[in-house]
Amino acid sequence: MSTTDLTTEDFEKTITSNDIVLVDWWAEWCGPCKQxxxxxSKVSDAHPDVVFGKVDTEAEQELxxxxxxxxxxxxxxxxxxILVFSQPGALPEAALQxxxxxxxxxxxxxxxxxxxxxxQQ
Length: 121
What we know:
Blueprint: E1 4-5, H1 11-16, E2 20-26, H2 31-46, E3 51-56, H3 61-66, E4 74-79, E5 82-88, H4 93-105, H5 108-120
InterPro entries: Thioredoxin, Thioredoxin-like_sf, Thioredoxin_domain
Family: Belongs to the thioredoxin family.
GO molecular function, one term: protein-disulfide reductase activity
């Protein structure tokens, strides 16, 4: 699957209406972002069941601020609408593949219980 540009208008709907969503936060002027883009695109082709979104932090400054993006590129992973991974820096292909494997293997019932416990405290 190719990557999808995400904007403020469709970000939340994309996150909440898909099982697994990866998001690459980037900017045109960012050298490491440009180096990471082909890796991200290549890995997206190997995982058609995962949505690979891209957010241009220059065009979507409010969205980037709402997501507390302070360094780019930053990769985030959402599962069932819940942020389960966030890491700044360009990931090597093997590391990105590993993130996807780990996100797939998560026990989401356990994650929801943990979140509920945190919210109650």
